[in-house]
Amino acid sequence: MSRSYIQDAIIKLRKFYRLEKRLPSYAEFCELFNFSSKGSAQYLVNQLIEAGIIEKGEKGKLLPKKLLHIPHLGTIKAG
Fold first, then answer.
1. Max Cα–Cα distance, the chain, nearest Å
2. pLDDT one-digit tens code per residue, 17-70
3. How many helices (H) and strands (E) does the chain have?
4. Can you give 30-42 as a three-state secondary structure string?
5. Residue 55: in which H helix or E strand, if any?
6. d(Cα 31, Cα 26) in Å, to the nearest integer?
7. On the CB side of 52, how many CA atoms lie within 13 Å of its CA?
């Protein structure tokens, strides 16, 4: 799977997460990415897990990991 495809997937997932406050189910992955099978959704999920973008919780629920990453721009000296 190409890097640009993963980047496109991240953009779609961020939009979904902003609206729904959760990651999509496998059926919703199929709808979101126009997949005809849950196997294709599972493949994409595994690619996103390997890339460190999402993770699976203890009960198998998909959780954002770096999906909502806020870049650190620097520090401010105080005092």
1. 58
2. 999 999 999 999 999 999 999 999 999 999 999 999 999 999 989 999 887 765
3. 3, 2
4. HHHHCCCCHHHHH
5. strand 54-56
6. 9
7. 2
